[in-house]
Design brief:
The chain has one domain (3-151, 176-218, 239-245): 3-Layer(aba) Sandwich (Rossmann fold). It has helices at 3-28, 42-45, 65-72, 84-93, 129-139, 153-157, 193-202, 231-234; strands spanning 34-35, 40-41, 55-59, 76-81, 99-101, 114-120, 140-151, 159-160, 165-167, 179-183, 186-189, 205-211, 226-227, 238-245. The longest helix has 26 residues, at 3-28. The chain is 32% helix and 28% strand. Helix 1 runs parallel beside helix 4 and helix 5 crosses helix 7 (193-202). It has a seven-stranded mixed β-sheet with strand order 5-4-3-6-7-14-12, sandwiched between helices. It has 247 residues and is an alpha/beta fold. The protein binds S-adenosylmethionine. The site of S-adenosylmethionine has 21 residues, from helix 1.
């Protein structure tokens, strides 16, 4: 485990939390259960399905828009986040939600505690999946699901750092995907499709679906600048994995 990197991610999120909530909070909070950077509704995608009655853990809950929505529908949800500042935003938005301040790499829960672990560009993006997926598999019950949305390999290999834009050209090596420097020591991770599949299999998770959310034309995003502007309607910018722990 690279603890320096975990600490760096926490420092960065504590520092940017109030800016992030101002910049992106309105889009994420526009209505309940919107997936990803272009806010594609869960009712279109059906990635989580009905969650009432499930014991659920949001891994990197940020302002807890998702956890709050599932709690309102009758799930027993815990919001977990590495950043105290992000949890402050969660507490302000959903006062009664159980919150845990911890890293996804070392989950403070007994094995088999949850029916569902999920996140939307949360800890499965902001940690090394080779550390986090085993922890997720441990805390899931047999038959439980890990469902998460993260940046697609496409968006990463088409990203142009000099213009800070996602472009229509292949710019970096697909096979070199992995850790991405987010500044000040923080990192996100994007794996190849094959590498994700092997991490899941090594931890007893089978892929039930790989949803590629396609936004409506002109759907706004406060996260990415793209060239062409309708990039995400033409190529998959995000991968929404639906996996299940085998018995
Ligand atoms: C992009 S936000 C996503 C949260 C929410 N879905 C949203 O859209 O705002 C990423 C969140 O993951 C949290 N995070 C980053 N690394 C983490 C880790 N290793 N363990 C737990 N949470 C982490 C950050 O603090 C942040 O709140």
């Amino acid at each position: 485990m690279n603890w320096e990197q975990v600490k760096a991610n926490r420092r960065v999120w504590d520092r940017i939390s109030s800016w992030y909530q101002q910049a992106h909070g309105p889009q994420i909070s526009r209505r309940p259960k919107l997936w990803g950077a272009w806010s594609v509704p869960e009712e279109e995608l059906g990635a989580l399905g009905p969650t009432a009655g499930l014991r659920a853990l949001e891994l990197g809950c940020g302002g807890a828009q998702w956890a709050g929505a599932l709690a309102a529908e009758g799930a027993a949800v815990i919001g977990l986040d590495l950043s105290g500042e992000q949890l402050r935003a969660a507490r302000a938005r959903v006062p009664d939600l159980p919150l845990v301040h911890a890293a996804a790499e070392t989950l403070p829960f007994r094995s088999g505690s949850f029916d569902l672990v999920f996140c939307d560009h949360g800890a499965l993006s902001w940690s090394n999946p080779r550390d986090t997926v085993p922890e997720v598999a441990r805390v899931l019950v047999p038959g439980g699901r890990l469902v998460f949305n993260t940046a697609s390999p496409w968006v990463r290999v088409c990203y142009d750092g000099s213009s800070d834009r996602v472009t229509a050209n292949l710019r970096s090596s697909y096979f070199d995907l992995g850790a991405l420097d987010e500044g000040d020591g923080a990192r996100t991770y994007t794996l190849t499709y094959g590498a994700w599949t092997r991490v899941f299999r090594a931890n007893g998770l089978v892929v039930e679906d790989l949803i590629e959310p396609q936004p409506a034309p002109n759907a706004p995003s406060s996260y990415y600048t793209c060239d062409p502007a309708d990039w995400a309607t033409r190529w998959p910018a995000e991968t929404l994995w639906v996996t299940r722990k085998t018995q």
